[in-house]
From TrEMBL:
GO terms for molecular function: metal ion binding; metallocarboxypeptidase activity. It comes from Roseovarius lutimaris. Keywords: Carboxypeptidase, Hydrolase, Metal-binding, Metalloprotease, Protease, Zinc. Zn(2+) binds at residues 254, 258, 284. It catalyses: Release of a C-terminal amino acid with broad specificity, except for -Pro. The keyword Hydrolase applies. It is an enzyme of class 3 (hydrolase). The active site is at 255 (proton donor/acceptor). The lineage of its organism: Bacteria, Pseudomonadati, Pseudomonadota, Alphaproteobacteria, Rhodobacterales. The keyword Signal does not apply. This is Metal-dependent carboxypeptidase. Its cofactor is Zn(2+). Binds 1 zinc ion per subunit. It comes from the Bacteria.
Amino acid sequence: MSTYDDLMAHERETQALSQVAGRLGWDQETMMPRGAAHQRAEESGAMQAVIHARRTDLRRGEWLAKAEAADDVARAQLRHIRRDYDRLCRVPGDLAVALARLTSRAQGEWAEARANDDVTRFAPVLAEVIALKRQEAAALAEGGDLYDALLEDYEPGMTSALLDEMFAVLRPRLVDLRAQALAGAEAPALAGQYDESAQMRLARDLAQVFGYDGTRGRLDKAVHPFSSGSGDDVRITTRTSTVDPFNCIYSTIHEVGHACYEQAIDPAYALSPLGQGVSMGVHESQSRIYENQLGRSAAFCGWLFKRMQSVFGDIGVADGDAFYRIVNRVHRGYIRTESDEVQYNLHIMLRYDLERALISGDLQAGDLEAAWNDRFEVDFGYPVDRASNGCLQDVHWSVGLFGYFPTYSLGNVYAGCLNKAMQADLPGLEMDLAKGDLSAPTAWLRDKVQRHGGLYEPREVITRACGTEPDAEPLLAYLEQKFAALYPG
């Protein structure tokens, strides 16, 4: 065996162990008995210790120094492994341990603070998390920008300068579009009661319609929907509410987008660095285009309306046009995860600006609530009513995920670019969607994005698929056209 072969054999075993660790997490959120929590923590900790030891194994560095790439695939594999190993080596082991311990405690403090709307309880431990994340960023940045160093974990190659440029285009036009939509009559929400077992049957049908291979996965219920795994074992979860079937429907479609990405990656890349989605932004582009540009389109809503009637009977909606308006209603609210397409990115940009200020030291943890509330009122037009609807609503900062939030908006921007290119390539798309036939768009996405896995860098994936560099204009044009029609000024 060559040095490269030795390295890849090591990576394959490490990736396999990571998949097992992920399965432990899936089980914990879906089927694990409540009394097993303490033992599961021990099991998960043991798995993570083994995986960390393999990722920091000195032989990995020796193999990287000697390995030669015979082709583009091998070069891409080495690029991913070298990036991972270099970053691990830059962060002192005692700092990594301290962060793991602190964020575990901070998550519990956040949950208690959120339940009691008490920011003062969370602020001290958040300040500790920020201090350690700044140390980690300094080790990774090696003199460069601290926030960019953290962003690299989630979106390789992205910088705050590129984000600033993109968000400067997005924010004012989204604020204006939001104001236009809310100036008119608000569309009604769906009314009535919806059987939860029927919702799950519909969710499984929709997963199949959108191309999810149930023979290599499964759909279960969880408190917070997520997708887990890659290759031949990709599992998704959704949630149900008797008064809000859309929560189940669109959570399912969203997670199917993530799962289909993982299922479609070239099988030759399985259990290797290339055998998973290349970045959080590209991953989110798949879930968002499935959920929004396809799943919330007028044509598909017409089909879904009839499907809803067949499952639930009369749902109190006159026709497909009224159903489409309800699905896409713009409404006042505080919660990011419940937001509509128009306002979602405003939530993300608020968090992005604040977390950058926290990492740079321009904003202190004790001042976060006031800064959040001021910015929210400017962008959304009304004050935050309580902390659990404001700066305590998300878990991300308590567990140290600084640099993660902007990838949600990047996913939307990438989805806008992909949608424009897909519409041009598939002139019969609207007719297919009206029949509930998703085969053409999902095949297009498999070919243009999903099959490549981690072969290309994130922005290159989108550029290759669309023929142009990613930018915010296609997303804005799509949103303005769609919601101007729904809410004519």
